[in-house]
Design a protein that fits this description.
By secondary structure, the protein is an alpha/beta fold. Helices cover 38% and strands 18% of the residues. The structure holds adenosine-5'-diphosphate and alpha-D-glucopyranose. Alpha-D-glucopyranose (GLC) binds next to α1.
Length: 488
């Protein structure tokens, strides 16, 4: 089948700006838009969280799902996102219309009914891909993302009649959606699938394992991560399954929305600039320093972080090297939220070094853009990183990233050395060892290069010239969809 005619249901638990906790939100908005540009017919399926209903008041009802023994009644509403891609939003007030985040309450505790909430999302995705779909539109491929939609391939495998093919994308293997075994029956799954070759994971039900086991194909979000997850430790217990299915597994790098993340047009930054007007970037730095209450010093580099605060991100190493970093001298701006211990540590660091360190705890999209524009260098010392978006945004904003060589970071950042400066490929600072010392060495190299204005400009321009847009990767997905629609 020609890929341009393909109908794709992109089932996801986030879609920016309606709901976003991390990169999945960015991908779920920009990637379907790229598919539409290629001529495919994508639709997004997303729970009608409170924030979604508030931002999309003009939705019309297109289907009703009656209550079953397993699930409450729900409605399917249709609207569209800014790119014009249709959005199907699953309206079930008792499961989704509540204050708090998509996965957790305001105190950071997982919602206790997550199995049901994302079981229903998976069930709806499967129904839309089955012969019983209530819509006139039936997808050729149901594209599932992370554990929250991992049961859809199982439901579809057991559905009667013609069915859509299924693709399961792994955005982060660290989150698997593991629940008590009684949910197998409670979510209407056949008992026979609860085996080690099915959805069972050490006696429990694993949503992600279900998707990986039953989907017709698997992708993950960078080529390096696709290799890393086939062995320990980054396989997080699923390495053998992934290695066994490696002929069905591809690593395709995420793209970025180059219109939304463009320093030449970004309405959220203080002064717009491009590769030819990089001197203007300094005005963003002083605005950022003023906004964050940092000393208005142009003479020390400003390092920045915008991140979920979790062990994955390696920011405990940043805390460990903070004294040496500040002694360079340098400034540090943190924007993030997550684990209370990390939030507290960064707050305390900022309180004791008010002129040099700022910690903004919480989620703030506008500040994230200003930080990309105003910082000198961007820190992502991740222990593991399936893809990572900010190292790509940073390069586009002339803010070289300092990254560990893992996952998508290894695939998108070229370490600065005399050789890579000479051949024009250098775009950031890469370190290898998973340690605070290795991070410190990279930070020191970055600070040294920052003082060499000619090399620094070259580094900035190299990053800004790179094409991180979605087109190439969207074509690779389209080829997979076409193969699945033809052969399953
Ligand atoms: P992950 O998905 O693991 O969190 P990514 O690098 O793929 O990491 O994507 C993170 C996305 O979330 C980026 O768009 C980043 O700017 C954004 N982000 C993370 N934390 C915050 C925050 N506190 N405020 C605003 N944006 C944030
Ligand atoms: C996950 C990963 C991140 C990736 C994002 C989007 O949250 O942690 O590395 O960029 O998904 O695929």
């Amino acid at each position: 089948m020609k890929s341009s005619q393909l109908r794709i249901l992109f089932a996801t638990s986030e879609c920016a700006p309606l709901v976003k906790t991390g990169g999945l939100g960015d991908v779920s908005a920009a990637f379907p838009a790229a598919l539409k540009t290629l001529g495919l017919d994508p639709r997004i399926l997303l729970p009608a969280y409170r924030s979604v209903l508030a931002q999309l008041p003009k939705c019309r009802e297109v289907a009703r799902f009656a209550a079953t023994a397993d699930f409450p009644a729900a409605r399917l509403l249709q609207g569209q996102i800014a790119s014009g891609v249709p959005l199907l939003t699953l309206d079930c007030p008792e499961l989704y219309d509540r204050a708090g985040g998509p996965y957790q309450d305001a105190d950071g505790a997982d919602w206790t009914d997550n199995a049901l909430r994302f079981g229903l999302l998976s069930r709806a995705a499967a129904l839309l891909g089955s012969a019983d779909s209530p819509l006139g539109w039936r997808p050729d491929v149901v594209h599932c993302n992370d554990w929250q939609t991992g049961l859809a391939p199982v439901y579809l495998r057991y559905a009667a009649g013609a069915r859509a093919a299924t693709l399961q994308t792994i955005h982060n293997l660290a989150y698997q959606g593991i629940f008590e075994p009684q949910f197998v029956a409670a979510l209407g799954l056949p008992a026979e699938c609860f085996t080690p070759d099915g959805v069972e994971y050490y006696g429990k039900l694993s949503f992600l394992k279900a998707g990986l086991q039953f989907a017709d194909a698997i992708t993950t979000v960078s080529p390096t991560y696709a290799l890393e997850i086939q062995s320990e430790p980054l396989g997080f217990g699923l390495q053998d399954l992934l290695a066994a299915r490696r002929d069905r597994l591809s690593g395709i790098l995420n793209g970025i929305d180059t219109a939304l993340w463009n320093p030449a047009t970004d309405p959220l930054i203080a002064c717009r600039y491009d590769a030819d007007t990089l001197a203007t970037k300094a005005a963003n730095k002083s605005t950022l320093q003023r906004r964050l209450g940092l000393a208005l010093s142009p003479n020390m580099p400003l390092f920045a972080v915008v991140s979920r605060l979790t062990a994955q991100k390696g920011l405990d190493w940043l805390l460990a090297i903070a004294p040496q970093l500040l002694a360079l001298p340098a400034q540090l701006a943190i924007l993030g939220g997550g684990e209370p211990q990390l939030e507290r540590s960064f707050r305390t660091l900022a309180e004791s070094h008010a002129e040099q360190v700022s910690a903004t705890i919480g989620f703030n999209e506008a500040l994230a853009h200003l930080i990309e524009a105003g910082a000198d260098a961007f820190l992502m010392p991740s222990r593991f990183e399936p893809c990572g978006m900010n190292q790509m945004y940073s390069q586009r904003y002339g803010t070289p990233p300092i990254t560990r060589a893992t996952g998508g970071l290894a695939d998108t950042v070229v370490d600065c050395s005399p050789a890579t400066l000479a051949d024009g490929s250098a775009s950031g600072f890469v370190f290898h060892d998973a340690s605070a010392d290795a991070l410190l060495a990279a930070v020191e190299r970055a600070a040294g290069t920052w003082r060499d204005t000619v090399s620094w400009r070259a580094l900035q321009r190299n990053g800004m010239a790179r094409d991180f847009g979605w087109e190439t990767s969207a074509r690779r997905y389209a080829a997979i969809y076409a193969r699945l629609a033809t052969n399953g």
